Amino acid sequence: MKKLMSLVLAMLLLLAAGCGAPADDADAPVTVADGDTVGEGAVSFPLLIADKDGNEVNITVNTDEDTVGAALLELGLIAGDESEYGLYVKTVNGITADYDTDGTYWAFYINGEYAMTGVDATPIAEGESYALKVE
Prior knowledge:
The protein has 135 residues and is an alpha+beta fold. The protein has a single domain (37-134), classed as Beta Complex (Ferric Hydroxamate Uptake Protein, Chain A, domain 1). The protein has helices at residues 2-19, 68-74, 99-102, and strands at 37-38, 43-50, 56-63, 78-83, 86-92, 95-96, 106-110, 113-114, 130-134. The strands form two sheets. It has a six-stranded mixed sheet, covered by helices on one side. The protein starts with a helix and ends with a strand. The model is unreliable at 4-26 (pLDDT under 50).
């Protein structure tokens, strides 16, 4: 009987310890600071992130991914909704811009020009710079 009670007590302690465990932060947005270099990989590109107040963060992204979107998703720097048109980016660097909520959105730029492709359809090209800006 003592062995059974010890086993039950041990199981209760394990269960109680598991209930107090912190939540998994795998989906928590990643934030970066100006001048940061993030990721690992053979390819590198500069990324400018500008919020609605014009505050800018310039970072360098290192990756082995083929597209800008895949690199940023892999690092947790962006999040959004998939649709038949591609990824609708709603959150960048922990900042959310949602047109349906506040009339703002994340605009994507390549070399200072408004991009004609989505972030998830844009191949990373040597010498190009990218930007995501709230508009």
